[in-house]
UniProtKB/TrEMBL annotation:
Domain of life, per lineage: Eukaryota
Transmembrane segments: 634-655
Family: Belongs to the RLP family.
Recorded GO CC terms: plasma membrane
Matches recorded under Gene3D superfamilies: Ribonuclease Inhibitor
Protein name: Leucine-rich repeat-containing N-terminal plant-type domain-containing protein
Main location: membrane
Cell compartments where the protein resides: Cell membrane
Membrane topology: Single-pass type I membrane protein
Organism listed in the record: Citrus sinensis
């Protein structure tokens, strides 16, 4: 193929060392695409040094290796326009052939763990360079600018490195044509340079996860007319948001979370008609949630948790037909939930730790089958858990803890096939635990839950610019396990299954079907009024890490089969009526101390005192109605006590004449009162005179 100019072998499973491949003899090749294979490619590209026509080389995501210094002393004959060797992870410095290149337009060495400083010399040597991607390396030192302004660079992507110091004040002067600028996840400090406002073509700016301070420059807010993505999360920025004017009317996604911004949500954002994502959590914002947010019809995400916002949830939110995530948790929001007819496909509702109240009425704006997460914990909601909850067919996480809910655990929960986490703790729920929870995904029925979750419909919510920078926020859910509240997100959340019904008024026995929840990692039934025995089949919960059934009225023995729970890290049966020998002190049970069993005086065995068979009766887990009290001993002691009390009274009356007279006086008055009561109320009139004569005679 002596005339072959373009060859693309991307996205295969090809192997072998390129140095000994026929590809190096394709002297007419101009564009060679080898990405996403298993080729062994030398980082120096020396096998292609004699190919003077080579313009484009793409070898990312292969097995890149570094030769010794002596093996690449030659000067390449090619002048590349594009080179991509990302994803190699080779722990080296930049290859020397780059120093001889002057026509480069695209360079991507991301995810390679390269060392050194910023390649300002590369910019100086290649004035036509328009894209430089150095994401996720080990570059360090100050972020130096080239000698002259670079008029062609439109994409600069250097996140996840170790650059230090201030962002150069004149960055906007040296890179005036930038469209995408990503300096996130470095160690930059100081303030945001005002010269960024000189980048009139800027569409995406990501300075997140640094140590930046100060306010958002006014020049940026007034001059970057084309800015669509502004990401300033995880810094130490402060001040009021867009306190004067805001001309960022093309904003699609605004990320200001985890800073120290104050003031109210600025009215100027109401002009951002294209806004899809508003992320302002973990700041010091205050005031009411503005009703005009409901007019931003393109909004997908509203995340403003952990602020000082107050007032009700605006009714105008019902107009957000594309809303998918609403997170207003940890604020001072009050009132009841708005009732409206919304057509949104909302998937996550996080309203925990507010001051919301009232019943969970039908017709609330989140009453949609698409919902996956419903977190209303730590509020003052009252009434019953509604029957319409069965319509939330995709519901995975139901968190209603710490409210004033009452009634029984609804049977409708058993129809939610995707349910993974149930937290109804600290309410006033009564009745029995439903035995049908094994119909949910807590029971390993072989279904793939992930494939059943509704897909997002976002247009541009997740990525922007070269390198596909992920901006989607990971969902976080608080759940208590092992007596500690953890925040689960990402992969740990996807693997978490649990049920928490603690601190309620539940009665009855633990249903045996609970033992079929084989995916469960945390089960908390403590602080209720449960009776009966601990099911032996609890030993089937082979993934459970936390099992708490303390503070109930359970009796019988602790099933010895529980020692088979190898994943168990927390176990408590304290303050019940259990008796007999505790499970063998082996495996995980060697980590459980006396406090796991306290409040059960008839338990014995290590780590408690050794069992005395004569003193401690063996209890049975069979429901035979036998009491743990020796009734024969009870009758003897009761009768003896009664006789002793009577004899003591007689002895006192005999010894003391005063109390002797008072006693007979009391008896006389009592007999007289009883006599007249009978005469006045029970005996007919014709017998009255005969009774009176008898009375005078007796007196």
């Amino acid at each position: 193929m002596t005339s072959l100019r373009v060859l693309s072998l991307d996205l295969n499973q090809l192997t072998g060392n390129i140095s000994s491949s026929p590809l190096i003899h394709l002297t007419s090749i101009e564009r060679l695409f080898l990405s996403y294979n298993q080729f062994q490619i030398p980082f120096s590209l020396e096998p292609f040094f004699n190919n003077s026509k080579l313009k484009v080389f793409s070898g990312e995501c292969n097995e890149i290796f570094v030769e010794s210094e002596s093996s690449h002393s030659m000067t390449p004959k090619f002048q590349l326009e594009s080179v991509a060797l990302s994803g190699s992870g080779i722990h080296a410095t930049f290859p020397k052939f780059l120093y001889n290149q002057h026509d480069l337009e695209y360079v991507d060495f991301s995810d390679s763990n390269l060392k050194g400083e910023f390649l300002n010399w590369l910019l100086e040597n290649n004035t036509n360079l328009n894209t430089l991607v150095l994401r996720n390396n080990s570059l360090s030192g100050p972020f130096r600018m080239p000698i002259q302004p670079h008029w062609h660079l439109d994409t600069l992507y250097v996140s996840k490195n170790f650059f230090q110091g201030n962002i150069p004040l004149e960055i906007g002067v040296y890179f005036p044509r930038l469209v995408y600028l990503n300096l996130s996840r470095n160690d930059f400090n100081g303030s945001i340079p005002s010269s960024i406002g000189d980048m009139n073509s800027l569409e995406a700016l990501d300075l997140s996860h640094n140590q930046l301070t100060g306010e958002i420059p006014e020049h940026l807010a007034m001059s970057c007319f084309n800015l669509e993505f502004l990401v300033l999360s995880e810094n130490s920025l402060l001040g009021q948001l867009f306190s004067k004017k805001n001309y960022l009317r093309k904003l699609v996604s605004l990320h200001l979370d985890a800073n120290y911004f104050t003031g109210e949500i600025p009215k100027s954002l109401s002009n951002c008609s294209h806004l899809e994502g508003l992320y302002m959590s973990d700041n010091n914002l205050y005031g009411n949630i503005p009703a005009w947010l409901g007019n931003l019809s393109s909004l997908y995400d509203i995340m403003m948790a952990s602020n000082h916002l107050q007032g009700p949830i605006p009714l105008e939110f019902c107009q957000l037909n594309y809303l998918q995530i609403l997170d207003l948790s940890e604020n001072n929001i009050s009132g009841s939930l708005p009732s409206c007819s919304s057509h949104s496909s909302i998937t996550q509702v996080h309203l925990s730790k507010n001051m919301l109240y009232g019943p969970l009425r039908y017709g609330t704006f989140f009453n949609r089958s698409s919902i996956v997460t419903l977190d209303l914990s730590y509020n003052s909601f009252s009434g019953y858990i509604p029957y319409w909850i069965e319509r939330l067919t995709y519901l995975r996480y139901l968190i209603l803890a710490n409210n004033n809910l009452e009634g029984e655990v609804p049977i409708q929960l058993c129809r939610l096939k995707q349910l993974r986490l149930i937290d109804l703790s600290n309410n006033n729920i009564f009745g029995q635990i439903p035995g049908c929870l094994d119909n949910t995904s807590l029971h390993n029925n072989g279904d793939n839950d992930d494939s059943l979750v509704p897909a997002f419909n976002h247009n541009v919510r997740s990525t922007y610019s070269a390198g596909s920078s992920t901006m989607e926020k990971e969902e976080s859910i608080m759940f208590t396990t092992k007596e500690i509240s953890f925040s689960y997100k990402g992969k740990p959340l996807n693997k978490m299954y649990g049920v928490d019904l603690s601190c309620n008024k539940l009665t009855g026995e633990i249903p045996p079907q609970i033992s079929k929840l084989t995916r469960i990692r945390a089960l908390n039934l403590s602080h209720n009024n449960l009776t009966g025995v601990i099911p032996v089949t609890f030993s089937n919960l082979n993934q459970v890490e936390s099992l708490d059934i303390s503070y109930n009225n359970l009796n019988g023995k602790i099933p010895p089969q529980l020692v088979e729970l190898n994943a168990l890290a927390f176990f408590s049966v304290a303050h019940n009526n259990l008796s007999g020998k505790i499970p063998e002190w082996t495996a995980q049970f060697t980590t459980f101390k006396e406090d796991s069993y306290e409040g059960n005086p008839l338990l014995c065995g290590k780590p408690l005192p050794d069992c005395d068979v004569a003193a401690v009766p063996e209890a049975s887990n069979e429901e035979d109605g036998n009491s743990l009290i020796d009734m024969g001993s009870f009758y003897i002691t009761f009768t003896s006590s009664y006789v002793i009390v009577i004899l003591a009274i007689i002895g006192v009356l005999y010894v003391n004449p005063y109390w002797h007279r008072r006693w007979f006086y009391l008896i006389e008055n009592w007999m007289t009162s009883c006599f007249y009561f009978i005469i006045d109320n029970l005996i007919p009139t014709r017998f009255y005179h005969a009774c009176m004569q008898l009375h005078y005679y007796l007196v």
